[in-house]
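Reviewers of the previous submission asked for a worked example of the structure-prediction workflow described in the proposal, so we include one complete record here. The input consisted solely of the amino acid sequence. No template or homolog information was supplied to the procedure at any stage.
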Amino acid sequence: MNSILLIDDDQSLRRVTEYNLTKAGFAVKTAANGGQAIESFQHSLPDLVVTDVELGDMSGLDLLKRFKQEAPEVPVIIITAYGSIEMAVQAMHQGAFNFITKPFDRDTLILSCRKALEMHSLRIRTRSLSQEINRLTGVEGMETANTAMAELLHTALKVAESDATVLITGESGTGKEVLARLIHQHSSRKKEPFVAVNCAAIPATLIESELFGHVKGAFTGAVQNRQGRFQAAHHGTLFLDEIGELQPEMQVKFLRVLQEKQVEPVGSDRTETVDVRIIAATNRDLRLEISKGHFRDDLFYRLSVIPLHLPPLRDRREDIPALVAHFLKKHEAPPQVSFSQAALARLRSYHWPGNIRELQNVVERCVILRKNDTIAEEEILLSGRTSASDRFIPDIPPEGLSLEEVEKGLIVKALSISGGNRSEAARLLKIPRHVLIYRLEKFGLDV
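From that input alone, the workflow returned the following structure tokens.
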């Protein structure tokens, strides 16, 4: 049931309008003035606002401006007994959905409300669809505040304009497929297929058929012709994850396909030409694999025309708050749900062996098991222990950071936690008590 916030200082008219809207199937909340309206709006966001212009304590147009600043997607209908073309134009310029003058009949208002709510619903669906498209194409969640990551994304977008083969390296869970999708989405091939293959998940006996296809009768169980991933990605992008897991004999065949742009389905004596952009990824050190004889050096050089290395999450901790916000939206947490500052500090201090994938799992778990809308530090369950080297280290901004101010801040915080007990504060800071007293005197802290 759609909710409407009705605002009118005329009690009798407010009651009549509330009755008509309720009878029409809407859930109606009322406010007699601007102050009540603001309180109700902030407490529970309505699907639609219907407000009179003259409210006694403030103007309905002022309310319209405020509501549009706080929640621009909520439509607002303005009602007034003092209608004029100038006022109507002003209201529409400020974002009002409609402007109705008194006296009005019940059907006119109800029809306007239904149209406004239809538009509101359409906007929500459009935004959700846009977010889903961004998620699937790898655009959403790639924003960064980290300099190295920003440079990497800049390079990736520049590379997207070409058809060059890309090799993405990085630890598991750093977002290699997301980056590959981002490159595809910004390429001239974006309207064509993006086909992802996990080379480690396919048995060695089936990988050739999976990549190149097969013809009927090629082997036991091949009851019909089957298209391979290369053919499926024709004119588009083929993403080969865990490329380092390919067996040597398959590496030879794969190198030939890269060179000749042709595939030969298993059991066939004919080749098929394919137009495919290759993006490969691995969490292995392929140069080390080459030295061990496990990976062909000619294939490595063919794949790494453009090498891109994704940094682990522990090297881009400043992105954690934005990633947390992204995953809250992705897992459909109510808009009022957030992590406390202490909880965010704990997330930033953790070493994240599972990288972004582990962070996503932690956020999802917290959303499901949360006790309140503000997720506390003690609600965060991490799979690993925070090592001494991973304890909280503040970010150093471009303009620099005062080491003395950081030290002073830690001392003040320790004294606050200990209730002013210097011995306990020294224990928390893991320094002798006399050293703490010396620091207090040095910094002029009269605590």
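The CA atoms of residues 140 and 181 lie 10 Å apart. We consider this example representative of the routine output the project will generate in years two and three.
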